[in-house]
Amino acid sequence: MSTNTYVTGGQEYTRDTNYIEDRIIRGGDAPEAGRWPVEPGRYRLIAARACPWANRTVIVRRLLGLEDVISLGQPGPTHDERSWTFDLDPGGQDPVLGIERIQDAYFRRFPGYPRGITVPAVVDVPSGAVVTNNFPQITLDFSSEWTEYQREGAPRLYPEELREEIDRVNQRVFTEVNNGVYRCGFAGSQEAYDAAYDRLFTALDWLEERLAGQRFLVGETITEADVRLFTTLARFDAVYHGHFKCNRNKLTEMPALWGYARDLFQTPGFGDSTDFQQIKQHYYLVHKDINPTQIVPKGPDTSGWLTAHGREKLGGRPFGDGTAPGRVAPGEEVAPGHGA
């Protein structure tokens, strides 16, 4: 990112998905070739609460109970043209890495890194260098490569017997919903916006129909697919409906999706990882070309997230044969007044 300009005149928004493809895997023996070893205490996940892609990694880390083996660094809700900053930490530095910007970890590995300095990112603590920012793979690897260190009762978020369907659902949700809201918000022409808007709500209508008869997206339990959809739904009324002009209707006006979102929000790992205030600050302050006044709206009222959803009648077991995670780790709680 070179400036805080997100809209290109006359063009459809296209996301740069060329990420650092290194992986942390069991038996990883060649970091120089992109194969890093699973090693408790070695890595630090840098994940801003405001970012939906980063929020996913925080949820999965908590559901699987990996807090004690992969530490968490939390940048503030805003960034400038250079990168996300640790302005919420004492002295404006990450307490483990000792850096003011996640950019420093990127440059430690790739001097002058030319692409976007994004979160989430996993950093190798001993060297202070970024390992990967490939957010779709990070959560899958938490599920499949860190099994030895997951908590007792950890759910199966990416079970082999459901992977084909999970992957298929994830692909449509990513292109049409997760990224679809950005295509609306960053559209550079009326034509591009109209096309993005129609695609988004076609997909939301498909999800509304799918979730009217089943509690979760794939199978009888929470999976990776639910995590990926949730972080967009959590931001929909607070940001995407108005700021990104995704305004055919609010999430609260889609009965199945709204019930589904509340069901997940009230499940440990989801709502307790959601910071509505930081979410609003990020979008309304950073996207200056969309919101030049940088006024952050006071609404919407988030108390509805805690109301009864009635989804239990559809059956299903959120954690399958596993159990819910325990209390949020000290220092990782959502600030008072920032949640529902």
The profile of the biggest β sheet is: 4 strands, mixed
* Number of beta-strand segments: 6
Q: SSE order in H/E notation?
A: EEEHEHEEHHHHHHH
Low-confidence runs of at least 5 consecutive residues? none
By helix and strand content, what is the structural category? alpha/beta
Question: How many domains make up the 3D coordinates?
Answer: 2
Give the strand order of the largest sheet, numbering strands 1, 2, ... along the chain. 4-3-5-6
Report the total helices: 9
Overall spatial form: globular
Kindly provide the radius of gyration, computed on alpha-carbon positions and rounded to a whole number of angstroms: 19 Å
Which CATH class of the largest domain applies here? Mainly Alpha
Kindly identify the CATH topology of the largest domain.
Glutathione S-transferase Yfyf (Class Pi), Chain A, domain 2
- What portion of the residues fall into strands of 2 or more residues? 5-15%
Instruction: Tell me which CATH architecture of the largest domain applies here.
Output: Up-down Bundle
- Residues in helix, %: 25-40%
The CA-CA distance between the termini, in Å, is 32 Å
Mean pLDDT: 96
Question: What is the topology?
Answer:
Elements: E1 23-25, E2 35-37, E3 43-46, H1 52-64, E4 71-73, H2 103-109, E5 121-124, E6 129-132, H3 135-144, H4 163-178, H5 180-185, H6 190-212, H7 224-240, H8 255-265, H9 276-286
Parallel strand pairs: 1-2, 3-4
Antiparallel strand pairs: 3-5, 5-6
Helix pairs in contact: 1-3, 1-7, 4-6, 4-7, 6-8, 7-8, 7-9
